[in-house]
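#struct-pred
JK: can someone run the complex with zinc ion? inputs below
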Amino acid sequence: MIRTEHIGIAVKDLSLSIPLFEKLLASPCYKKETVESEHVQTAFFKKGDTKIELLESLTPDGVIAKFIEKKGEGMHHIAFEVEDIEVEMKRMAEEGFQLLNQTPKKGADNKLVCFLHPKTTNGILIELCQEIKP
Ligand code: ZN
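RT: done, structure tokens with the ligand placed:
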């Protein structure tokens, strides 16, 4: 684990949440990206070394839409940057954490990602992410 890379926040409507977070953080949204595989639209902010990722569902039955239905808008996951995602996934599995995907997936922001099931992590959805090196 290198650091907390970003905090993911589930929102209903990016067109309302982007200006809200721009006001809150006094920083502009620097990137918007669609992640087709997850059916989400994302918007990124940066504060120091850590980013905030806002997530809006593109479909009514997407994971973010379902999350908001159950828990309302709010914190969705914490992402930790790792040096080598395969090594870290193996370590997590050996430690008894349940991986939600068995091979790294392509996430937003040029990352390979893997999620850990919240039932094995004190209720917090954890994302491991590794920068895709050119
Ligand atoms: Zn994330």
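RT: quick notes.
Helices lie at 14-25, 63-71, 85-94.
The CA atoms of residues 85 and 130 lie 6 Å apart.
JK: thanks, will look after standup
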